[in-house]
Amino acid sequence: MIQLPDEIIHMIKTIESAGFEVYAVGGCIRDMILSCRPKDWDLTTNAPGEKLMELFPDAEIINRNLGVMRVSVGGLAAEIAEYRVDGEYRDYRRPETVCFTQCIDEDLRRRDFTMNAIAVNPFRGEIDLFQGRDDIRHRLIRGIGNPRVRFEEDALRILRGIRFSAQLDFEVEAETLLAMGEKSYLLSHISMERILEEYHKTLISNRCSRGLELFRKTGAWEYILGNGCFARAGKTELDRLLHLEKGIDRTERSLPVRLALVYLCFARENALAAIGYLGHSNEIKKRMLLAVENLDGLEMIRSAGDLKRFASSVGLDAYFYLEDLAAQRCAALGMDRTGCRERTAMYERIIENDEPVYLADLAVNGRDLIEIGIKEGIGLGRTLTYLLDYVHENPNDNKKKLLLDLAYAFGQTENDRG
Question: How far is it, in rounded angstroms, from Cα 42 to Cα 271?
């Protein structure tokens, strides 16, 4: 028997002492069977919501229609839901109606996968109607009953199943995988927000490669990348994605890295379409655009001057992100890392020699230039850019008097042109 935490046992005792039954159920039981610490706790009970509020007056109502509330005991929180049977699903996501029931078997039948339908009560024992323990032991994800019906009820279950496979390193049972592919078109009814959430969780999973493989096998990529990218992608782009699929587990589990590696498989226009499709946060979108627009430029750098100009143009934080991304791409695709090592050594020498890279490193600033007669505005910016470009190639000349002389001469030239 699974040993539940004392706080969960206290909740169970409280409900049972009032004459009702209650079980810990779902992912928390699955995780405990796998000897993992559950992130969330779920209980299901035949006690009505009104009675639960009496027993736990400080409970937070999560969803009144579904009879779900959150209860905290000793710092541990659990969501408690009433046994229910779902009515007809009309939007491929949520039931139109729910009917509360007194039978836990009926509640378990409405769930998604066998591994998530095991219920445990320390006094009543364990209920495993669908041999979920066997599937966990065999590391299998299997839909309950007819998996096609499960995915028709809630198409998001397709992406959840893929995410579970990537997180747990489980295979998807053959009939369930076939149903995922047959019903993947229903993902068009799922909100971008939920697709994005499952996609991100899959990317940072231990076995991300499984997730990418299942996106391909089920046809889910179309609903993650959008037709603006996926339908226009050529064989070369899809081959790159397949190559990435095989090696992505060798990269760090960083969302900005793995997300960018996917988009970098595609031609610029297709990548930009995909980046804009799902509704990423502005911060993530900015990182992805940075990667697509600049990574190739970084990898073409051959001299210290070019490196300093590049780092100055994108900024320090962006430069380090792109360097890490370049190294991670080499790891994923099995590419030679000589270029990465050479740039790293080059940048270290630049820093060690205290060579100017950014505008703040110049021996002069805008105020100094204004004092010698250079007007604020475009001209001032051009002059600073000229001086920075000069010291990128001549770092030993980063001296105030010398730069002011150069600035004055440059200003005279600009005036002559004007």
Answer: 40
Angle subtended at Cα 198 by Cα 166 and Cα 64, rounded to the nearest 5 degrees: 125
Does 143 have pLDDT greater than 80? yes
In eight-state DSSP terms, residue 112 is S
How confident is the model at residue 384, as a pLDDT?
95
What's the number of CA atoms in the CB half-sphere (13 Å) around residue 133?
12
Q: What is the helix (H) or strand (E) element at residue 99, kind and residue range? A: strand 98-100
Report CA-CA distances (Å) from 70 to 6, 31, 42, 175, 188. 17, 20, 9, 36, 32
Helix-helix angle 304-314:316-333, to 10 degrees: 110
Rounded to whole angstroms, what are the CA distances from 1 to 33, 42, 126, 145, 250? 10, 17, 8, 26, 37
What region, left, alpha or beta, does residue 219 occupy, with left being phi > 0 and alpha being psi -120 to 50 degrees?
A: left
Q: What is the pLDDT of residues 78-130, one digit of tens each?
A: 999 999 988 777 776 666 667 899 999 999 999 999 999 999 999 999 999 99
pLDDT of residue 399: 97
pLDDT at 139: 98
Q: Say if residue 270 is exposed, middle or buried (CB neighbours under 10 Å; 0-12, 13-18, 19+).
A: buried
Q: Give the distance, in angstroms, between the CA of residue 390 and the centroid of all CA atoms in the same chain.
A: 42
- How many helices and strands (H and E) does the chain possess? 22, 11
pLDDT at 416 over 60: no
Cα(157)–Cα(207) distance, integer angstroms:
19
Q: Which residues have C-beta within 8 Å of that of residue 138, sequence separation ≥ 6?
A: none
Task: Check pLDDT > 90 for residue 221.
Answer: yes
Give the mean pLDDT of 271-293.
Answer: 97
At a CB cut-off of 8 Å and minimum separation 6, what does 296 contact? none
In this predicted structure, what is the pLDDT of residue 376? 87
174: exposed, middle or buried (Cβ count in 10 Å: 0-12, 13-18, 19+): exposed
Element (H, E) at 80: strand 76-82
Provide DSSP, 253-306: S-HHHHHHHHHTTS-HHHHHHHHTTTT--HHHHHHHHHHHHHHHHHHT--SHHH
Tokens for 178? Answer: 């076939």
Which residues, in sequence order, are CB contacts of 253 under 8 Å at separation 6+? 204, 205, 206, 208
Band of residue 301 on the pLDDT scale cut at 50, 70, 90: very high
Residue 261 and residue 204: Cα distance in Å, rounded? 12
Task: State the DSSP H helix or E strand holding residue 133, giving kind and residue range, or none if neither.
Answer: helix 132-137
